[in-house]
Amino acid sequence: MKRVYDFLKKAEVYYLATVDGDSPRVRPFGTVNEFEGRLYIQTGKAKSVSRQLAENPQAEICAFMDGAWIRIACELVEDDRVQARKSMLDAYPNLRAMYDENDGNTQVFYMKNATATFSSFGKETEEVKF
Predict the structure, then answer these.
(1) 109-121: per-residue pLDDT in tens?
(2) What is the rounded CA–CA span in Å between residue 95 and residue 72?
């Protein structure tokens, strides 16, 4: 899991794919946090991605950096504890201009049943499950 975290953190931007009805939706994200042995991402409840994950928590994350890429297939599970939201916002203090752990909008999800696939041209593909 640390290798997955390190890759996403260093890449700074990853793309989150969700399902909206019968259509895929992809958007850039930039938050990843390790909290209590799990990897978390953050969004706002007012965003369409929140509704999409409530309807179907299956997601895929993809990032590219230095000629290598990662794909993470997972279920994103909401953690509604204030401690989880606070941990995320403490890791990304610049988000505090828009979010607060007690605002009723900030939402964090952890990756469950995740399979991360590391790939690059000319190297063997590697999988990490967490």
Answers:
(1) 999 999 999 999 9
(2) 24
Distance CA 99, CA 32 (A): 15
14-55 pLDDT, tens digit each: 999 999 999 999 999 999 999 999 999 999 999 999 999 999
pTM above 0.85, yes or no: yes
Which helix (H) or strand (E) segment is 98 a member of?
Answer: none
What residues does each domain of the chain span? 2-129
Class of domain 2-129: mainly beta
Distance CA 94, CA 98 (A): 8
Q: Measured between alpha carbons, how far is 118 from 72 in angstroms, rounded to an integer?
A: 9
